Amino acid sequence: MTDLPALSFAGVAFAYHRSAPEVLHDITLDVSDGAVTAILGPNGVGKSTLLHLALGLLTPTAGAIEVYGRSQAGLSRRELSRIVAMVPQNEHVPFDFTVLEYVLMGRSPHISTLGMPTAADEQAAVDGLGALGLTELGSRPVPELSGGERQLVTLARALTQGPRILLLDEPAAHLDLSNASRLRAILERLGREGTTVVFSTHDPAGAAAVSDEMVLMRDGRVICHGPTESVFTSSHLSETYAVPIAVARVDGHPVVVPGEHT
Fold it and tell me: What is the helix (H) or strand (E) element at residue 119, kind and residue range?
């Protein structure tokens, strides 16, 4: 871990087309190195767009992004891919790769152009599956997996990439309760091991259970950011979602209770 933020957004704005309205407005935000950070907000506030900007798939229309103090714009695609990996909500796999072949693709940033995976790369893929308890899926074709299995395999591929920063867009969207709990345990472990984890979610209580820091967004802006215990309050969540929300604890776990519209 370093004293530098893992990611810094300074006055970042973004629009998908020159004539289109901005999706994000004046985002100024530091993501702490080694922290698990949850991004929450209603549909359409720009959570996924913010993650795609952090990954370098999108370019800000204004402002700048730094990765460990270096300008993101000055990093090559290969350099950035060795630092930042992402687990998207959905990913189309056009060929019948086996799970192990698909996970091995995570080593691409570490393999030279026209080069072949080394034994170390192949072992990293095997270890990535093993770390998530997915070894038995190694020979299965990816298209035959359930949605939940595919999401966990995509996470294994991202971890095989060896990133310092892991981005996840609604990672529990296709998971049942058991696998969602398993995912939370994985994110907590990654945070303890020093990986910077940033994930978007529609589950405030689940986010509060695993995150060190929280970002609340509304209308394309960050309205609150800081340690989870100070951000995860009834007033902040009510402002974010524009409905009365009560925050309580049941057996030590956070519970969110939406109120009625008035």
Answer: helix 119-131
Show the tokens assigned to 92: 């189309």
Q: State the Cα–Cα distance between residues 62 and 217, nearest whole angstrom.
A: 18
Task: Kindly report the number of other CB atoms within 10 A of residue 202's CB atom.
Answer: 14
Residue closest to 7 by CA, chosen among 109, 124, 86, 111? 86
β-pairing, 84-87 vs 165-169, is parallel
User: What's the pLDDT tens digit per position in 9-59?
Assistant: 999 999 999 888 999 999 999 999 999 999 999 999 999 999 999 999 999
The answer to whether 139 touches 59, Cβ cutoff 8 Å, is no
Confirm whether pTM is higher than 0.70. yes
- CA atoms of 124 and 129, how far apart (whole Å): 9
**31 neighbors 37 (Cβ within 8 angstroms):** yes
Q: How far apart are CA 91 and CA 93, in angstroms?
A: 6
- Pairwise CA distance, residues 224 & 181, whole Å: 26
What are 25's two structure tokens? Answer: 């407005």
